């Protein structure tokens, strides 16, 4: 099962593709559309251990952040809303049209973030088969186990597949501790500041041996200036952990069929089929 973080892929394609793509008459930029299908097709070809997986693309809902913003109004408030920063959105409708045209399923829930939808579907699918989540978003590290892995195509080909063992070896925490780790250290992409002075090494030391965040105050580990900083920010830390923790229990109106999706088309064929060349 391949679950694709649709907006993450669209942004990566729009801003990271090697060269801009335009219509033949140069009046329309097509980079985001072309790159979306090029990267998705290349990932299925190069990074999966099955020839033709079941593919499901998940997009953020228009009001998906509302629940977390209600908890903390600073959530993702650092993201630019300039025309250039939002440039990928112009390709959203044709991307969905292209997916529909070739029978590749996608889902978008108006009041849910893609992270939570993917977490719900990954949990559901992993009961019967391996799952690969295609995204550069490290929030998905909390899902990692012996059945769920993350695919980050921005990494070298030999390091694109991220496992629970890698997270433990690289960061010193288990996937289950990832929300606590990020609550302490911060997550710039979501505008979660973390505790001042607490870096990855300190956080990993505090959380060693699988220590749950809620048990830290009674553990005797919150000593010195750094311990005092965490104690002072404790209510914020708990709130950040809750915000970072993905939901796995959404009502997602999608049936996971366990069947191969249609073969992914060449990106040029998608553009041609949509009449955009």
Automatic annotation (TrEMBL):
<protein>
    <recommendedName>
        <fullName>5'-3' exonuclease</fullName>
    </recommendedName>
</protein>
<feature type="domain" description="5'-3' exonuclease">
    <location>
        <begin position="1"/>
        <end position="262"/>
    </location>
</feature>
<dbReference type="Pfam" id="PF02739">
    <property type="entry name" value="5_3_exonuc_N"/>
</dbReference>
<dbReference type="InterPro" id="IPR029060">
    <property type="entry name" value="PIN-like_dom_sf"/>
</dbReference>
<dbReference type="GO" id="GO:0008409">
    <property type="term" value="F:5'-3' exonuclease activity"/>
</dbReference>
<dbReference type="InterPro" id="IPR008918">
    <property type="entry name" value="HhH2"/>
</dbReference>
<dbReference type="GO" id="GO:0003677">
    <property type="term" value="F:DNA binding"/>
</dbReference>
<dbReference type="Pfam" id="PF01367">
    <property type="entry name" value="5_3_exonuc"/>
</dbReference>
<keyword id="KW-0238">DNA-binding</keyword>
<dbReference type="GO" id="GO:0033567">
    <property type="term" value="P:DNA replication, Okazaki fragment processing"/>
</dbReference>
<keyword id="KW-0255">Endonuclease</keyword>
<keyword id="KW-0540">Nuclease</keyword>
<dbReference type="InterPro" id="IPR038969">
    <property type="entry name" value="FEN"/>
</dbReference>
<keyword id="KW-0378">Hydrolase</keyword>
<comment type="function">
    <text>5'-3' exonuclease acting preferentially on double-stranded DNA.</text>
</comment>
<dbReference type="InterPro" id="IPR020045">
    <property type="entry name" value="DNA_polI_H3TH"/>
</dbReference>
<dbReference type="InterPro" id="IPR036279">
    <property type="entry name" value="5-3_exonuclease_C_sf"/>
</dbReference>
<dbReference type="InterPro" id="IPR002421">
    <property type="entry name" value="5-3_exonuclease"/>
</dbReference>
<dbReference type="GO" id="GO:0017108">
    <property type="term" value="F:5'-flap endonuclease activity"/>
</dbReference>
<dbReference type="InterPro" id="IPR020046">
    <property type="entry name" value="5-3_exonucl_a-hlix_arch_N"/>
</dbReference>
<keyword id="KW-0269">Exonuclease</keyword>
